[in-house]
Amino acid sequence: MTAMTVSNWEMQAGDPADFAFKLSFLRNPHGEQDRATPEEANSWGSFALWVAGENLCAHLEQGEVIEAAHWYMISFLEWLTQNWDPIFHEEQLPLKNVGYSAAEAMALTKSPPISLKELDEFEWLDEWTTWWDRHSVRAAREGGLFPDVYMRRYGSSLEVSTGAERLIGIPEEFTFLAPHRRYEVDLAKAAEVVYAVLQAASQELRRRLPDSRRVAALIANIEAIYSDSNASNRMAWLAGLGTDTEKYNDISSAVDQALAGVSDGVRREITGANRVTALVVQGSAYAQLVYGAYSPSINRDDVITLAGALVKNHVSDASPWLNKLALSFDPVEVRELTPGEQGSWLGERACEMLNAHQDRSWVDIHSAFAALNIPHEKITLSDREIRAVSVFGPNQRPKVFCNTQTKWGQSREVERFTLAHELAHLLLDRNRASELAVASGPWAPLFVEQRANAFAAAFLMPTWLLRDHLAQINGDIRDLETISSLAMRLHVSISSMIDRLHNLGELDVDDRFQLKARWRRNSGLGA
Fold this sequence. Notes:
The chain has helices at residues 38-42, 74-82, 84-89, 102-108, 118-135, 187-208, 213-225, 231-238, 245-258, 264-271, 285-290, 300-313, 319-324, 339-354, 365-371, 412-428, 446-460, 463-473, 480-490, 494-503, 509-523; strands at residues 9-15, 19-25, 44-51, 54-55, 59-61, 64-66, 69-72, 149-154, 157-162, 175-176, 182-186, 376-379, 388-393, 396-403, 436-440.
């Protein structure tokens, strides 16, 4: 097999203002001295990736800005092809749901906790590395200097995020110019862009190396991507089950059991079966919920419970209920703030607009739900980490399902906070998609959960009510008895009140720690 003498080649697809991918084959700078295989030598080139107008591959090299990452491209093409399904369908992070992006989460979880035993450390690193192999562009670098870019599914979008981890041996003057970024792009359009470049680049390699088995295998694998017969495998990734087809088939049969007897239209809306293309399963928020994407420990009974709840909640047109949720504040107004700051500001605004405290000295969350015509009911889910599930959509009226098995218990204070938290999802998360199905727990998007927690605290404990009650109590705000009295008057837990006062700056870190410790001792929960 011999290399052909060819000119430079490049292909760019997409709009850099949204999402674009460019790949080039260039003259090999190593010439005939290159010891690489013919496939590698002929694929020497570069790639660039733009999101929202920013080139994530741009870097500084010896004082000069270089617009693309250069190396042998065939391994990168093979990586994109082999990991197509997880890149566009797997959302669930490995190990822990931390950080606001995949890049941040992977940086935070790279080192195992010091409490792990040596054997557990190996398991931790193995799980981390396996996920990294599927989603980090650097998994394909094989010696090249690639940007710290991750791509994964995020709801109905593709999340593209960057970190700032320095590669071992990388020159000090070599710096990528777009670290710590996070973007959400249109899933189907991004898939079409990447696939177009894959197709064109592989055909160019075949033109250069017509007898190469490696190139032939690459082309065959790229062609295999473009088929809606891959839908089941992609649904398994979407459900967080990866290649565990046995568990996916069990859950799929449970979904079929729960949806037996419903119309084909309702079935398609819940499962997202009408949103399958040859490149991706776009699915639905309900499918991700029912198939277990938001809880790694979902079981068959949970599937039947959730699917049945969605069937009962289905309506032909949910717009009369959805219109009630359209309050006249825009979350975009505060998008530059942290999740906690956003939630706190929006929570108080919502409390004012809904007049939730009316003439009372406390906020009545049930009256707010009634005013918005949002029903709520109890369901039983095996995952005790899940507080509740909220749904809405064109054919799903806004509704909250509270988990009777949650580890937080069933006290009045817990129920009130849970409902206020779910109200945040229903009011604020409409801008993410036309439909919502979120299980509030440790695997829900961190940004969304932090904002909802802050919203709930501000909604139930607005500053004007705190100020009024403090004036009546006339006590020291750092005294546990004063805080207990405040909590009792506002019908919230003492723990929530301590957190709220801390977030408002009324208590410092030491105050919060000492008050929580005293509260736990007094409650019999230990120090």
